[in-house]
């Protein structure tokens, strides 16, 4: 049986009284213990805010100090109004269970027969701890799952499924607090259990009592047709998870159950919706923190912001905040491909359904003398890929969060960009590469003549290409970030198609064309497509994810391209602003 560890805390009063004492009783509040429980009962492998357990405290003399006292889960602990007994050396037994019931500590337990709504309340867990004495610390208790879970994976279905029912199991068990087990009550009749839908037409689950049984899986379609198949006899043990594969093909239901017992995990858990307040009181709409900044090689590196001898990474982060934080609207440079900045806010930017949530301000302008008068919009569009992270545990550390990428228009299909054919004809690399990696090598010395500009800083990537970042006559400072440690810099990420085209044909007039949407430094600040919908976020597999909001944003230059005298493509950032706090409503793309 798999055990699950959490903390059960009597956040109560420890009253130490002695007879004959003239001093008032000492009141001690137990210290809070913050851990991350590994209970797979609910989302994120933990109990959730507001969950309740029942607690009994039985002293060595068999008197009950507490009997079915309700305790509520808050911020990683269960708390209650229970007061410790006065005898500091007296030991007691703690008994706890989930889900809480006003009827008392369970001697028997029945799972719900309709788990579309009562799935969580069917998940019986108990914990027992001996020899507990009054303490200021939290009381650790290991909770044990006593029941079993059936997970039905529908691999194929020729019709939409209305429900899946697990038939022929007895829903009631007796609870053995000594051995921490649940035993089927054979005096109770078998029942049908309606499984909870995790994903329509794909994944279903139900909690059942451990028993030896031949289950029947019944599938009902939205058209009202019913199909049932009986499984072979199997012994279902407590704490185990059993996988059933189902296929509804041409009005024939085929099911099979694996004999392998799995540990319960969070796979397939239904995430309870977290709602983020889009306009929290006292919040500012702008960047309030800079966690990291490392530009790649570029003509504005060491200038935006200005590097001064002796500046450390921390000082450069502070300079970035001074430039683009708190609505200052200065400008920072990210350099060539991969150069990045990581920022945060004093609140969570809410993901409001149907709306764009934040805007990235840059220094984009359009060409006003493009030789191709029929060309699509473009000019100084130097797109940066945007990544977002939601701080679910509120630890305030970006490194501990999972990052997701905003899937802009090129992620959808580069060929849909209006300038795609133009860039292709110019021999640009118009592919999008999701696993791109580039390494820049620190130059041994600065160029002493113009002849050395073209071979200034060498680079190579993981696709077999190599080249040099070129120095130009307009910017004489070093292009390699001078506070960076080591003799090389490596960046990884999604490389976007090259959007710069020499429209003059002789190197005089370069136009960097606009992607349709979804990137930083790509659109005029006043246009709607400079705004981002958090719902565009995808995971590493390119699958859409739902985030209730974002706490951290990372932006990195998305293109590796030299554009003649204009220099490298380098994203530049002026600010990021929360549209909801500003009261700006922009619909998402349809």
Automatic annotation (TrEMBL):
<protein>
    <submittedName>
        <fullName>Putative cell surface protein</fullName>
    </submittedName>
</protein>
<dbReference type="InterPro" id="IPR042278">
    <property type="entry name" value="Mfa-like_1_N"/>
</dbReference>
<dbReference type="InterPro" id="IPR025049">
    <property type="entry name" value="Mfa-like_1"/>
</dbReference>
<dbReference type="Pfam" id="PF13149">
    <property type="entry name" value="Mfa_like_1"/>
</dbReference>
